[in-house]
Design brief:
- The structure is a single chain.
- The chain contains 9 helices and 6 strands, in the order ααααββαααβαββαβ.
- With 238 residues, it is an alpha+beta fold.
- It folds into 2 domains: 132 residues, no CATH class; 89 residues, Alpha-Beta Plaits, CATH 3.30.70.
- The strands form 2 sheets. A 4-stranded antiparallel sheet has the order 4-5-3-6. A two-stranded antiparallel ribbon has the order 1-2.
- α2 packs antiparallel against α3, α2 packs parallel to α6 and α4 runs antiparallel to α5.
- About 3% of the residues have low confidence.
């Protein structure tokens, strides 16, 4: 059998370590996306990292480092097609850019693992997770700074994540709570998400909402048994 001539235990163990490392690190990155109910979650990021590691490792074993670099360049461009699939335009808003960037980083982690750069792969994973978590409060704080002076018009939206069966009732509850706080609702929509969940989003009439009011509404609704996740966001425009 040709397999007996090509199989080398040391090389196989090296490949096994690369695969396992890519899968674990990709899953760590994807866990944060899964928690936030994004389209590309734990499994997608883990498989992207594993696939990148497999192709790079295969090229390196067959033709050496030069060919591995060539495959990495193809991976960098090819992963863009997968990332484009999670970017969605909803009216004037674009969603999924951060998730697409995260997939791109997962592929980079896999490429590092495939070339046996375990320390670099682990370090990159830490940086990606930090970027997706610790930078979020800073981004939110920056987005809210101009609104205090009333320099820009802002559109607020409140989003609840729940099971599809509970969506109609939660939509009515969300609208009632907002109107009770004197925040008129301009539009509501229910958007399907991953893992049999939907997002119920209520967009407010353009106004200068008080952050504390929205925080209180979200905190109250988050305690509802049928709500998986509750949040609010603000978007500014000229």
């Amino acid at each position: 059998m040709h397999f007996l001539h090509t199989f080398h235990l040391a090389s196989y163990l090296d490949t096994l370590v690369s695969y396992a490392l890519a899968l674990v690190l990709g899953a760590l990155i994807g866990a944060e996306r899964q928690y936030r109910q994004r389209t590309a979650g734990l499994r997608t990021n883990a498989l992207v990292a594993l696939g990148a590691a497999a192709f790079v490792d295969l090229a390196q074993r067959l033709a050496g480092d030069v060919e591995a670099v060539r495959v990495i360049s193809y991976t960098v461009s090819g992963i863009g097609f997968l990332g484009a699939g999670v970017i969605m335009k909803e009216g004037m808003n674009v969603r999924g850019l951060n998730t697409a960037a995260t997939l791109w980083c997962s592929a980079a982690v896999g490429a590092c693992a495939g070339t046996d750069m375990a320390a670099e792969a682990a370090t990159l994973t830490i940086f990606v997770v930090v970027g997706n978590t610790l930078l979020r409060p800073i981004v939110n704080a920056i987005n809210r700074i101009p609104l205090a002076g009333g320099a820009l018009e802002a559109t607020y939206s409140v989003t609840l994540t729940a099971n599809p069966a509970n969506a109609p009732a939660l939509r009515d509850t969300l609208v009632d709570h907002l109107e009770l706080m004197r925040y008129p609702v301009a539009d509501t929509e229910i958007v399907e998400r991953a893992e049999d969940l939907v997002e119920i989003r209520a967009t407010l009439v353009s106004t200068g909402a008080v952050d504390a009011d929205l925080d209180a509404i979200v905190a109250h609704l988050a305690k509802t048994r049928t709500v998986v996740h509750a949040s609010w966001e603000v978007q500014t425009h000229d």
